[in-house]
Amino acid sequence: MDNNFKMVAKTLFGFEDILAKELTQLGAMQVEKGVRNVSFVGDKGFMYKANMGLRTAIKILKPIKSFRVAREEDLYNNVKNIKWENYLKSDGSLAVDATVHHSVFTHSKYTALKTKDAIVDRFREQDGNRPNIDLRFPDLKINVHIDRQRCTISLDTSGESLHRRGYKTATNIAPISEVLAAGLILMSGWDGQSDFMDPMCGSGTILAEAAMIACNIPPNLMRKEFAFERWEDWDVDLFEKIEESLLKKTRDFHHKILGYDKSPSAVKKAKDNIKNAHLDEFVHIQHEDFFKTQKAGTAKLHMVFNPPYGERLENLNIETFYGDIGATLKHGYSNTDAWLVTSNLEALKYIGLRPSRKIKVFNAKLESRLVKYEMYEGSRKAKKQ
After folding, report:
1. What DSSP assignment string belongs to 373-385?
2. Which of 24, 138, 226, 340 lies deepest, with the highest CB count within 10 Å?
3. What is the C-alpha to C-alpha distance for residues 29 and 24, in angstroms, rounded to an integer?
């Protein structure tokens, strides 16, 4: 038990419940939801596992000290008193990022600078040597979080945001983030037990995340590096053991994942990304205009897509475009659960269908809605009659 410690997984607004469920399923202890984060307890192996296996986490932080701050000196002195030599060599490199909600500390960059000064001064006073600053590939990445009077200093175990899975080489205008895509699919309740479709697939992010969910493939297997790989206590054997244990839990998938896009360049990018992710045996992408298609067969279909909002495409007639979405679903896609996400809340009125669910989410800084339309078997027949 002594080897366990507290960690905090950061996520997007509205994804706290899903992330907490993911953590519990992975085997985390003392899982507690916050706002845009979930805290939990585990050991070093679990820290590796969380970084590799969580779909809706952006970062995994390891808090090492928490204290009250009223003035700048409180921050400097407390940071300087931390035994940084336990985490970093004096000739190593570091980077600091900060988030602040405080009357004195109003600027995150300045807070990060004061933190860096305190760490560097400690090393310089101890042996005359000082670590370098390396914002891109530091040996140690440090996170400072000040909320009112409470400051928490954490080690960033992830490094680059965990949405950078490593399979995307090509993107379109305003691509959806991998974490957002995975969260929306999990929120939609898809479990890999039916066919799946993204009819406006862009660069293929939703398709890739759906395939990994269906097969229970760890989302961050293809990452080039996690921050903890540069730590003093990096254990490559343990990491490989955890990786192997996650890979043993992958499962077979017996349905189809289909992507359409009417842009030939998007289709090419999506195919490249799916191939990079080694998911091309599960995902089929076609050059199609969704509005000219209808569902093949009568089996249940699960659809998740991110249509243009108007910000992404100029000359888009929102009323006609969203009207066409409604008409295509109604006349061509019976026995389908169709989920779409949009930040254009006005546009939803033009779909002309009644949503059975509406969930508030954020796409970057845009407040959006994830909405569900249930297209029943027989609605087409009724229409014809």
Report:
1. EEE-TTHHHHHH-
2. 340
3. 7
